Amino acid sequence: MAQKEQSFANHSRIDPLFHRFLFPLAVLFVIAAVVRTILAPDWWGAVRIVGAIWAVALTLKIRLYALKLQDRIIRLEERLRMAQVLPEPLRGRIGEFSETQLVALRFAPDAELPGLCERTLAGNWDQKEIKKSIHTWRPDHWRV
Predict the structure, then answer these.
(1) What angle do CA 9, 11, 15 make, to 5 degrees?
(2) What is the Cα–Cα distance from 7 to 134, expressed in whole angstroms?
(3) Which of 16, 44, 98, 116 is most buried, taking the most CB atoms under 10 A from its CB?
(4) Residues 17-46: tens digit of each pLDDT
């Protein structure tokens, strides 16, 4: 199956299992537990609320752990790529990039990377500015 071409406008990804099932269901459990406890207050109502809040927190933490691990891997990959692609003066400045800048620069092709790195460091660009400045998008279909 061919992958859809990525761009700034469409690069964010929805994980249907998380965004459309797990998280909404966990939030629904909290709402149902609160409503049930208001209608018929008892000790088990409080237990249900705590359990439902636990489900929301667990769902979010599992997702955030995966995203944080992905960002750490991207940071490593981009530093390795920059060490190979950037000219010598810029190689010494790789450590100046923030994690969010490195994550954004992964979409830049090798040909655009040196120029984007110079402008990013000079202007202290954030993710959005970096991504908007990329002319030829380098897709990342493997992200979580």
Answers:
(1) 125
(2) 9
(3) 116
(4) 888 998 999 999 999 999 999 999 999 999
Cα 96 off chain centre by: 20
pTM equals 0.74
Q: How confident is the model at residue 1 (pLDDT cuts 50, 70, 90)?
A: very low
76 vs 72: CA distance, rounded Å: 6
Among 26, 7, 5, 23, which residue's Cα sits nearest to residue 15?
23
Q: Which two tokens stand for residue 85?
A: 């692609």
Tokens, residue 22: 């797990």
- Residue 101: Cβ within 10 Å count: 21
Domain-wise residue ranges, the chain: 14-72, 86-139
DSSP 103: H
